[in-house]
C-alpha cells in the first residue's frame, strides 16, 4: 500500500507549502500532491510541466430541453433556491450559480423536460517537475466539493507512486472537509505550527482531526524564534503527549527571498538555514522507517 505523508496546519501562512517543497526536494523518490485545491500554490515553487489534464465533475446541474418544455412554471414554483425562471416565451432557464442540483425540478416536471447533467467544475493535472512527479488541481471559482477533488488528486498520485511508493501531500489549512480528505487514511501528518497564541490554538484544532483519524502526528515549528517561550511550550506539550517534534525553522530573510524568487527554500538559502530543513528531513525519514518496519 502506498505510504502517504500529509503536511497540514491549523491556519494558512504557517509555512506548510514551503516545507512541503523542501521535503519533496530532499526525499526525491516520491510523488507530490497539492491537495490545497481551493488555493493551490505548490506549483509556484516546483514549476510543474503539465503532461495530462483530466476533467473533474464535482456535481450535477439541471438542464432544460426547450423543445419539451411547456412553460407550466411548476419548476419555478418548487425551486427553493430561485434558480429557475420561466421567460415570456414560456421557456424555463436555469441559473447555473444558484442551482444546487437537488432534482426537485426534474421530479415535478410533467413534460420530462428537465434532467440532471454532470458539470465540469475543475481540472486535475498530472505534471513533471525537476524534483519528482506532481499531481495538482484547479477548482473553478465559486465551486464546492473540494473534498471530492482532493480524493481524486490523492488517487491519481497513488497510481503513479505504486503500492511500494510514497506520496507527499501538501494539505489545505484549517480543519474543514478538504483537510479531512487530505488526512484520512494517510500514515503520517506533519503539523506545521507557529509559536503564537493563535498558532497554538490552531495546532490543537488540527491535532484533534489527525487523532480522530488515527494518523501518526508529528510537528515542525516554523519561525520558532518569533517567540521562544511558546516554542518551548509546544515542545513541552508534544513531549508529554508523545508527539515527535521533527525540528524547527527560524524566521530568516533568505527564506522569504527564496520564496519570492520561486526557489525551493532548501535550495535557495545558506547552509546554516538549510541545516534546519535537513534535520527535519532526517527525523522524518527515521519516523518513516519506524512505521514501515512496524507494518511489516
Automatic annotation (TrEMBL):
CDD domains registered for this protein in UniProt: SIMIBI_bact_arch
Question: Know the name of this protein?
Answer: (4Fe-4S)-binding protein
Q: Which SUPFAM superfamilies match?
A: 4Fe-4S ferredoxins, P-loop containing nucleoside triphosphate hydrolases
Q: A single GO molecular function, which one?
A: oxidoreductase activity
Pfam families the UniProt entry points to: CbiA, Fer4
The cross-references to InterPro entries, in alphabetical order and at most eight, read: 4Fe4S_Fe-S-bd, 4Fe4S_Fe_S_CS, CobQ/CobB/MinD/ParA_Nub-bd_dom, P-loop_NTPase
Transmembrane portions of the chain: none
Domain named 4Fe-4S ferredoxin-type: which ranges? 60-89, 90-119
Family matches, as Gene3D superfamilies: 3.30.70.20, P-loop containing nucleotide triphosphate hydrolases (3.40.50.300)
Amino acid at each position: 500500500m502506498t505510504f502517504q505523508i500529509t503536511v497540514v496546519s491549523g491556519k494558512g501562512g504557517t509555512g506548510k507549502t514551503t516545507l512541503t517543497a523542501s521535503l519533496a526536494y530532499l526525499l526525491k523518490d516520491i510523488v507530490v500532491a497539492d491537495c490545497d485545491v481551493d488555493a493551490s500554490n505548490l506549483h509556484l515553487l516546483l514549476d510543474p510541466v503539465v503532461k495530462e489534464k483530466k476533467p473533474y465533475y464535482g456535481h450535477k446541474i439541471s438542464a432544460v430541453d426547450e423543445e419539451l418544455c411547456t412553460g407550466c412554471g411548476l419548476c419555478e414554483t418548487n425551486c427553493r433556491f430561485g434558480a429557475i425562471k420561466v421567460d415570456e416565451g414560456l421557456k424555463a432557464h436555469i441559473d447555473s450559480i444558484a442551482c444546487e442540483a437537488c432534482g426537485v425540478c426534474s421530479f415535478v416536471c410533467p413534460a420530462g423536460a428537465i434532467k440532471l447533467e454532470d458539470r465540469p467544475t475543475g481540472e486535475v493535472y498530472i505534471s513533471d517537475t525537476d524534483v519528482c512527479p506532481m499531481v495538482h488541481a484547479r477548482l473553478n471559482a465559486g465551486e464546492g466539493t473540494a473534498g471530492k477533488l482532493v480524493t481524486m488528486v490523492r488517487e491519481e498520485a497513488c497510481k503513479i507512486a505504486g503500492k511500494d511508493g510514497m506520496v507527499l501531500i501538501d494539505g489545505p489549512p484549517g480543519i474543514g472537509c478538504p483537510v479531512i480528505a487530505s488526512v484520512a487514511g494517510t500514515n503520517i501528518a506533519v503539523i506545521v505550527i507557529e509559536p503564537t497564541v493563535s498558532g497554538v490554538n490552531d495546532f490543537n484544532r488540527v491535532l484533534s482531526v489527525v487523532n480522530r483519524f488515527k494518523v501518526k502526528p508529528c510537528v515542525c515549528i516554523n519561525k520558532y524564534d518569533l517567540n521562544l517561550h511558546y516554542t518551548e511550550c509546544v515542545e513541552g506539550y508534544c513531549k508529554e503527549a508523545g508527539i515527535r517534534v521533527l525540528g524547527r525553522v527560524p524566521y530568516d530573510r533568505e527564506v522569504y527571498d527564496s520564496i519570492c524568487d520561486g526557489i525551493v527554500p532548501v535550495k535557495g538559502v545558506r547552509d546554516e538555514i538549510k541545516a534546519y530543513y535537513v534535520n527535519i528531513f532526517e527525523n522524518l525519514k527515521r519516523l518513516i522507517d519506524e512505521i514501515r518496519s512496524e507494518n511489516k
